[in-house]
Amino acid sequence: MTATRPTTVSSAGPLLAGRTAVVTGAASGIGLAIARTLSSHGAAVVVADLDGAAAALAADDITESGGTATAVEVDVTDERRVQTMVDHAVETYGGLHVLVNNAGITRDASLPKMSLDQFRAVVDVHLQGAWLGTRAAAAAMREGGGGSIVMISSTSGKTGVFGQTNYSAAKAGMVGLAKAAAREVARHAIRVNVVQPGLVRTPMTEALTPEVWRQKVSEVPLGRAGEPAEIADAVLFLASDLSSYVTGTVLEVHGGRSM
């Protein structure tokens, strides 16, 4: 099968009208911002998260704002539950067109102090979870005639971060996964791309001490941290037909911090 350019690429209406998107780790933070943005551009959104109650609240919030959303409790390291997540999207909305692999955790420690369990937990959620999601979503998208898969990596996977050998390795692995998958599924009109956020204002980063926060912000040429909505806008570009000729690409969204 040879992928063809979409017949229309227009910003005049909702960019994702008539499409279904699954976002993992979408109950809060960057994932929630992504879910809201995709919904605001017409997508029916499946809010997937390990915290099922929080996912339900997020889906209700999107629905009350005029969008279409449902919630699924999912452990992205569990093959069966990931498949159930994808099946839910297809059965509820008639297909799957966008998957955002956003779910993630941290278990920071220096190399001598990091346990094998801490290393495996982070790699399993970020990398194995993204692989399971990509595999299941690509099968559904192939049946539906194409789609877009977006990995949420991190500049930690490009530069490495002290105390995050697990996280940096997993985030770098997501780039390799995306590029290899992009080659495999392109013939089915499925695109796979990566967004690498830098310093973003989230509950996790706001827990940093004021001194550490100021130091990190000082490293950003634009002079500020990013907002979750700015990451969501990058995902929207890659999810929509505006990026119809973009696949296997890493889009860095970091205010110039990792140039």
TrEMBL record:
Pfam families the UniProt entry points to: adh_short_C2
Descriptive protein name: 3-oxoacyl-ACP reductase FabG
Residues covered by the Ketoreductase domain: 19-203
Family indicated by similarity: Belongs to the short-chain dehydrogenases/reductases (SDR) family.
PANTHER family: 3-OXOACYL-(ACYL-CARRIER-PROTEIN) REDUCTASE (PTHR42879), 3-OXOACYL-[ACYL-CARRIER-PROTEIN] REDUCTASE FABG (PTHR42879:SF2)
Keywords: Oxidoreductase
Sample GO molecular function, one term: 3-oxoacyl-[acyl-carrier-protein] reductase (NADPH) activity
PROSITE patterns linked: ADH_SHORT
UniProt EC number: 1.1.1.100
